[in-house]
Amino acid sequence: MSDFIIFNVANKPFAVHFSEIDEIQAAVEGTPLPFAEPWHGGVANIRGGLYTIINLRKKFNLFGQAPDSYQKIILLRQAKVALLVDDIENTASIEEADIEPVPDSTEKDIFHQAFRLDNRVIPILHVTLFLASTKTI
């Protein structure tokens, strides 16, 4: 059994494994850095640590209804990175046998696996590959 947090970005669900997360909290505004990528949300001092904020809407090129004031950040365990998401939907405990290769996707380099829940396919963010794609590790 694997445990996941399900989060939404532009009304699309994604998952990240519990073991990859240090904490989830209300979003904070980052201090912009010059010459940063468009998806870079700046840096923020969170509990004495300097975190890079990555705006997943911009990173995944997802647009739609603008998020409200309830945005969250997911603090990752592997690096001082905070993922800016629209909201946290739920948790899910998934049997290993129910995790499958992700269907065709333009982001297959960071989403290798997915699971089905409530008639939806929920891609699982591969944190190590994601961080490598952002050059934050």
Produce a short descriptive summary.
The protein has two helices and eleven strands.
CATH class, anyone? Mainly Beta
SSE string:
EEEEEHEEEEEEH
Strand order in the largest sheet: 3-6-7-5-4
Shape field: globular
The low-confidence runs, each spanning 5 or more residues with pLDDT under 50, are: none
Find the structural class using helix and strand composition: mainly beta
Number of strands: 11
Average pLDDT metric = 88
Second CATH tier, the architecture: Beta Barrel
Task: Indicate the multimeric state.
Answer: single chain
Strand content: over 45%
Radius of gyration: 14 Å
CATH homology-level superfamily: CheA-289, Domain 4
The number of helical segments is 2
**Which percent bin holds the helix content?**
under 10%
| Count of domains | 1
- Biggest sheet record: 5 strands, mixed
CATH fold topology: OB fold (Dihydrolipoamide Acetyltransferase, E2P)
Pfam family, one: CheW
Protein name: Purine-binding chemotaxis protein CheW
GO cellular component, one term: cytosol
Describe the structure.
Residues 1-136 form the CheW-like domain. This is Purine-binding chemotaxis protein CheW. One of its GO terms (cellular component) is cytosol. The protein is mainly beta and 137 residues long. It has one domain (2-134): CheA-289, Domain 4 (OB fold (Dihydrolipoamide Acetyltransferase, E2P)). It contains two helices and eleven strands; from the N terminus they run E-E-E-E-E-H-E-E-E-E-E-E-H. The strands form three sheets. A five-stranded mixed sheet has the order 3-6-7-5-4. A hairpin with a 2-residue loop joins strand 10 and strand 11 (120-124). It starts with a strand and ends with a helix.
